[in-house]
């Protein structure tokens, strides 16, 4: 979401950023999912997900020969795999774009473990169905994620 600058009413004409707009229900859902992940709250993360959720994540390349994590048990497996593979794994979304039932989060991933250090841009495409996360795909760049969601600028 973008922030809009507004002129303040002070006598010196200073510019102040307007407060951010409240998140839409879909963006708020995705933010809750990130928050649960950050707190390593497995059941909190599952509460944001549909029963048939699919996580298409890079950790699957290291632990599942690229197979996605499926369903609530898949979310539990992902969280165990992430804890086993990564000594530290931080997902830092910095902006959100929304189109219907798609939310694209743009940010960075910081991780270390399994003989690897990761500090890279990332884009996540979240597909929402009936108010729950139905699928998450991770991309190596904002452009790839926006393109996958049909939001790339022409």
Q: What are the main properties of this structure?
A:
154 residues, alpha+beta, Nuclear Transport Factor 2, Chain: A, six-stranded mixed sheet, 30% helix
Q: How would you characterize this protein structure?
A:
- The chain has about 150 residues and is α+β, with helices and mostly antiparallel strands.
- The protein has a single domain, classed as Roll (Nuclear Transport Factor 2, Chain: A).
- It is built from five helices and eight strands, in the order E-E-H-H-E-H-E-H-E-E-E-E-H.
- The strands form two sheets. A six-stranded mixed beta sheet has the order 4-3-8-7-6-5, sandwiched between helices. A two-stranded antiparallel ribbon has the order 1-2.
- About 25% of the residues are buried.
